[in-house]
Amino acid sequence: METVREERQTAPGAFVAFARFVLCGGGLGIVSSLAVAGLAARVPWMLANAVITVVSTLLATELHARFTFGAGGRATWRQHVQSAGSAAAAYAVTSLAMLGLRAGVAEPGAMLEQTVYLSASALAGVGRFVVLRLLVFARSRADGATVRPAPSARPVPAGVTRTPVTGPALCRAA
After folding, report:
1. Is the pLDDT of residue 5 over 80?
2. For burial by CB atoms within 10 Å, which of 117, 148, 151, 156 has the most?
3. Does residue 103 register a pLDDT over 90?
4. H or E stretch including 96?
5. What's this model's pTM, rounded to 2 decimal places?
6. What is d(CA 85, CA 132) in angstroms, rounded to the nearest whole number?
7. Phi-psi region of 138 (alpha: psi -120 to 50; beta: other; left: phi over 0)
8. Are 138 and 160 in contact (CB under 8 A)?
9. Is the CB of residue 83 less than 8 Å from the CB of residue 61?
């Protein structure tokens, strides 16, 4: 009787997850900052920031569910709602930073605006990482891990079905 070893698809460690978070979230953040600047030329800055924050949050939540935190698939509605809460806090941080800049500098240049916006986004991003990892996707990592059989070195004859054998079954077979 041959046993099949089971492998759990595990969530990445904190360092790998943070690197993925920076890659996905940071890349999306840079694109978002350019989109906010472009949209702010047509509508008030606060509205532009709100629109871009909503769109980028939906996209980022999907990326984080599938890639960053190893949730194993699409984000659930619950995860979207919870992620939106952390995005609302990030929106507040970036808005307050930009309001503070405009209160302190009469006509800030585009480079200064981008620096302040991206710095505030980075600070908010670290906070979002902690919230997403420990709260939003924590249950998905525990409950959503899938089990798949390990590849075998020997082919399985036609008509034979492999069944995982657990510890108690091994004891009975011995």
Report:
1. no
2. 117
3. yes
4. helix 77-104
5. 0.59
6. 10
7. alpha
8. no
9. yes
